[in-house]
Every structure is written in C-alpha cells, then in structure tokens.
Amino acid sequence: TPVIGVFALQGDVREHLTMLERSGARAVKVRRPTELDALDGIVVPGGESTTMDKLARAFDLFDPLRAALRDGLPAFGTCAGMIMLADRIEGGTADQETLGGLDVVVRRNAFGRQVDSFEADLDVEGLDEGFHAMFIRAPWVEKVGRDVRVVATVSSGAAMGRIVAVRQANLLATSFHPEITGDHRFHQLFVDQVRGAGTRAPR
Ligand code: GLN
Questions:
Q1: Is residue 136 part of a domain?
Q2: Is 48 annotated as a binding residue?
Q3: ipTM, two decimals
Q4: CA torsion sign, 78 to 133 to 13 to 197?
C-alpha cells in the first residue's frame, strides 16, 4: 500500500486524506521535514498559496519538500497546490515563492471576481467519463513548457480552452478541487501513478 502524505500546514487536508484512503493509499498528514522520508507521494491541497508558502518556510518544510520533489517524489497539487508546484506565477504577492518543478506559468485568481467559484464538466485525459469540477478562486495554466502534458481544459463558456489540469513527470496538478466532489477518480489516477513509480529508495 503506497503511503501518501498531505501537506497539512494549511488547506483542505481532511478532504484529501479521505479521497486518498478511498483510492487505496495510506494517507498521512505532513507537518515536519522528517515526515517526508516515509512517503511514496504527497498532495499539496487547496487553500491559500501565499499562506502555505509562508508556513512551509516557517516550519522548515519548504526546502526539504522542494528537494524531495526534485528527487522525483510524486506530487499532486490542487488549486493553491497547483500554484505551489508551478515554476512561475502571475498575480502572486511580491515575496511569494513556490516549490516549483512544473514548467508552467500559472495565473492566480485567473477566472476573475465575477466568477469567484463555479462548476464545470471536464473531459480528462485518462478518465473514461467526464469529471465534475469545482473551481474556487482558481488559477489557470497560462503557459506550458515542452515536457508538460495538458490533461484537461475548460470546454465551454468565457474560459473555454483554458488549461486546468496538467502533468509533467512526477507531478500532477489541477486548478480545481477533486477532493471536494466525492468523486475519487482523480486521486485514483494519482495513486496509480505513485504505484507505477514504485517505492522510493530511502534517502
Ligand atoms: N486563490 C488561492 C491562492 O492563490 C487558491 C484558492 C484555492 O485553493 N481554492 O492560493
């Protein structure tokens, strides 16, 4: 059984723990750098990326987690978590840093104040049937590097064509919150990816 951590300093941690367990993983909260060693994968939840950034640094989790990601630890970021995994952000605060690893530009709060939150049905690469997605002050992916695979885009409305799910090597990220809709297929994709990656050698 793969052990998957959830970054637990801020964000919707509980929802992710539930979905990961439902997808056949053992899910554990991560607050300390030493807790990274036991993991086969990690989820960075939705929440507030500026706060996550600050807390990660305050709790000495920022550099070790960044190193683990560079080292190939599989990671799944949702919404604020997507922002944390992005190499570059637009609309960040002046001193905001990200863990990075995903060769993308992500725009924070991209869908605008008018559409603070909304729902959309998405076609997702790797899923047989559509996925009902919830967006809350969500980012979108504005630019993707060569090695990034687009997994889902918005299929109608003003934001049609906007990229909302991507994958690159060990990293998976969504603009929306698959942890809150009761549909665990996205978490299942991630858990299967972690299984495929195998257990990491102890560092
Ligand atoms: N707007 C938030 C941020 O910039 C993300 C919102 C969310 O995770 N629901 O971090």
A1: yes
A2: yes
A3: 0.96
A4: negative
Residue 203 belongs to a domain: no
pLDDT tens sequence across 12-45: 999 999 999 999 999 999 999 999 999 999 999 9
Q: 158 versus 68: which is more confidently predicted?
A: 68
In a domain, 202, yes or no: no
Query: Which CATH number is 131's domain given?
Result: 3.40.50.880
Q: Which residues, judged by CB distance below 6 Å to any ligand atom, belong to the binding site of ligand 1?
A: 46-49, 79-80, 83, 108-109, 136-137
Query: Which secondary-structure segment (H or E) carries 62?
Result: helix 62-70
Q: Which amino acid is at 182?
A: G
The 3-class secondary structure across 70-114, one letter per residue, is HCCCCEEEECHHHHHHEEEEECCCCCCCCCCCEEEEEECCCCCHH
Structural domains in the chain (count): 1
Tell me, yes or no, whether 42 lies in a domain.
yes
Structure tokens at 193: 């990816």
Domain that holds residue 134: 3-197
